[in-house]
């Protein structure tokens, strides 16, 4: 079977590290590999801002989290944090012009 996605690169990992270093309260959530997507991690800041990048394997983001002294969770066990959904809703409302 052919995969539709590309492999994780150093640039992906560097983007997660940069996000974590420039925001407060960051936690990582590991998403499993699928047929179409390599293993990914979502970095979520204290205010719910988030970014998703390919990581290649759970061990990669586990090492990054260890090096940065940040928590890492398996999203299949914990789900996504509520602040992430609230952030998405605030952004949607802002794009719709609902917020002043």
Structure report:
This is Oxidoreductase. This protein has helices at residues 10-21, 58-68, 75-78, 82-96, and strands at residues 27-31, 40-44, 50-54, 72-74. It has 100 residues and is of the alpha+beta class. It has a four-stranded mixed sheet with strand order 3-2-1-4.
Number of strands: 4
Sequence stretches where pLDDT stays below 50 over 5 or more residues: none
N-to-C terminal Cα separation, in Å? 49 Å
Number of helices: 4
Task: Give the radius of gyration.
Answer: 14 Å
Main β-sheet, spatial strand arrangement = 3-2-1-4
Mean pLDDT: 91
**Structural class, judged by helices and strands?**
alpha+beta
- The topology string of helices and strands comes to HEEEHEHH
Q: How big a fraction of the residues is strand?
A: 15-25%
State the helical fraction: 40-55%
Summarize this, please?
This is Oxidoreductase. The chain has 4 helices and 4 strands.
Helix-strand layout with pairing:
Layout: H1 10-21, E1 27-31, E2 40-44, E3 50-54, H2 58-68, E4 72-74, H3 75-78, H4 82-96
Parallel strand pairs: 1-4
Antiparallel strand pairs: 1-2, 2-3
Protein name: Oxidoreductase
Q: Can you give keywords for this protein?
A:
100 residues, alpha+beta, four-stranded mixed β-sheet, 4 helices, 4 strands, 42% helix, globular
């Amino acid at each position: 079977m052919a995969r539709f996605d590309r492999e994780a690169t150093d640039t992906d990992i560097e983007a997660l590290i940069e996000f974590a270093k420039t925001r407060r309260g960051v936690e990582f959530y590991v998403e499993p590999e699928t047929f179409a997507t390599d293993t990914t991690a979502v970095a979520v800041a204290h205010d719910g801002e988030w970014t998703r990048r390919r990581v290649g394997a759970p061990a990669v983001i586990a090492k990054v989290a260890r090096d940065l002294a940040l928590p890492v969770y398996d999203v299949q066990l914990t789900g996504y944090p509520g602040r992430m959904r609230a952030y998405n809703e605030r952004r949607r409302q802002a794009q719709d012009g609902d917020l002043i």
